[in-house]
Amino acid sequence: MDSKQFREFAKAAVDYIADYIDSVEDRPVLSGVSPNYLSELIPDEPPQTGEAWQEVLQDVDRIIMPGLTHWMSPHFHAYYPTACSFPAIVGELMSAGFGCVGLSWVASPAYTELEVVMMNWLGKLLNLPEEFLNCSEGPGGGVIQGSASEVTFVALLTAKEKKVADIRSVHPEISEAEIKGKLVAYSSNQSNSSVEKAGLLGSMTMRLLPVDDKGQLRGGTLLEAIRKDKEQGLIPCYVVANLGTTPTCAFDKLEELGPICRDEEIWLHVDAAYAGTAFICPEYRHLMKGIDYADSFNFNPHKWMLVNFDCSALWMRNAKHLVEAFNVERIYLKDQHKGLAPEYRHWQIALGRRFRALKLWFVLRIYGVEGIQKHVRGQIALAKFFEDLVCADPRFEVCTSNMGLVCFKLKGDESLTIKLLEEVQKRKNIFVNTGHFQGRHVIRFAICSRLTERRHVEFAWNEFCSVANILEGRKMETMDKPMPTIEIANMSCQKIREKSK
Questions:
Q1: Cα–Cα distance between 93 and 398 in angstroms, integer?
Q2: How many CB atoms lie within 10 A of CB 363?
Q3: Which residue of 191, 362, 411, 445 has the fewest C-beta atoms within 10 A of its own C-beta?
């Protein structure tokens, strides 16, 4: 493919993406395919000769599109947002087009330089302690990782190596293996599954501690767990505190956990993967109370800040601990700029890295701080609107409501809520998922897509009410939506919507 063909292919692909986003709300949010559907549509062997790009793009629409769950749909209310915006898409495209690999400063100086500045921008937007910033005089700094899962694991490994070094500096007679075999980590039983997975990958016992009636991990619970482990000769090493848990978006009590971690010399990592974006709005920063005790802090711009996946921001109070844990030098990686700029290969598991800072830069410049604040406040307002709808119906009850997430259920036997969710999922007009709160099944309703408007929230509520009516024995008509198609003709894409009769 030459540059002329590339221009044609890429322009057609951009048209296709734009048309897809324009029509995404008209598509069933969940795919209707069955496992292994693709094997029947794609040949067993690759083609011997190259095919025209037009045929390939047609097959994207024919083969790939039916197998997508539409995360950008305003009818997608499951999990948490996976952000996407046009500036971020363009940033991703340009990053791919440059084709560089940021394995060192000299490999592409702009990769490192822009990331340093972007992490300073973000840290200032969230009002993080100054010592976390690259521009501070201290040893702290920020880096972009792939996901919060990766960050939790990286921070655990950092805490592990630091604890071993600290103990051996005082007791050199104790072997590294003996120390590592006794290390223990702690988090809430409301933490994301990736927290437990980090313990498995890092060969460190992860205690998932019970929470209070608001879903928060409290200081007394942590202190009791630490006391019991120390009595058994174990070594507390690492705590993951949540600012916005996965099931209910609860906020652990940092102001209680922090002093305990500092007194016990335990690494405190703060995971604010979803809710961290909200701290750009000053009115939500009180939820960060106690952040001064953190050794590391993370949130995902790719969840709520309009930056598409993957882009996870990590700050370290003292980055030298991270570098010491991951530093492996080779002669082919050395250059004359050592010490003048961060070498981010020492801040992560992989050697190479993508130019993630570019899409972050595009989003921050094109939306601006006010644009991002408007987006966050608007989605929280939509969640509050949904909460009000639930509260107004005596059949339902709200269990928790935080940020852009509302957890609710049908009153009465738990089986009713489970059945409600099952029937809503079968209809595939909206997508929600379940969670647990105080031992009960709840339905998690999250405002996810940047395209979501008040009418989409009303549509979703009507879905719940319609199914609830059916469960009560009352019939209601369902709305069948036509499926839009995208036709690829010549060198462009043109959206064709089925006209209503």
A1: 42
A2: 26
A3: 411
